Amino acid sequence: MQLNQIISDRFAILELVIVNHACGELMNIELSNESGVAVDEAALVSVAEFAMAHMGLHQDCDLAISVVDESRMSELHEEWMDLPGPTDVLSFPMDEMKPHDQEPGIVGDIVLCPQFALAQAKNGLDAELALLTIHGVLHCLGYDHAEPVEEKVMFELQESILATWQAR
Q1: For residues 120 and 127, is the Cβ–Cβ distance under 8 A?
Q2: Helix residue ranges per DSSP H, 82-147
Q3: Structural class in CATH, domain 3-167
Q4: Residue 19, beta-bridge partner list
């Protein structure tokens, strides 16, 4: 992705955030689906908002979710992670927010690939994308799974958030 495109996308998101604030909406989550796959966009926004609230973020935080096809995900995966081929989710933290931050801010960007996610889904695409959305939020908040201890903490937390969201 070229710097001009990133800046353009950021300004488009910021414009929507300003409009949403003027309308009194909080916990702004912007979602764009460019994947060609029908996904439950309302559920993705709901689970992202739930995860952010569960992690104690200020209610005036922003997040962007992009749903892309395998070709676009491959490009992003190679550009940002230096790894070939598509992946299920990429996360790009913005304001280095941490759980229980009491200040508003931009949590970051999450990129989902439904075609890739479907191949690994055990409980259907919608459930897998919900889990990956939570996974992306946690990455934006500094969680990682490079080490076994980190993986255990992160994966237990994402499963707990998903189960609580599904039970509501």
Answers
A1: no
A2: 114-120, 125-140
A3: alpha beta
A4: none
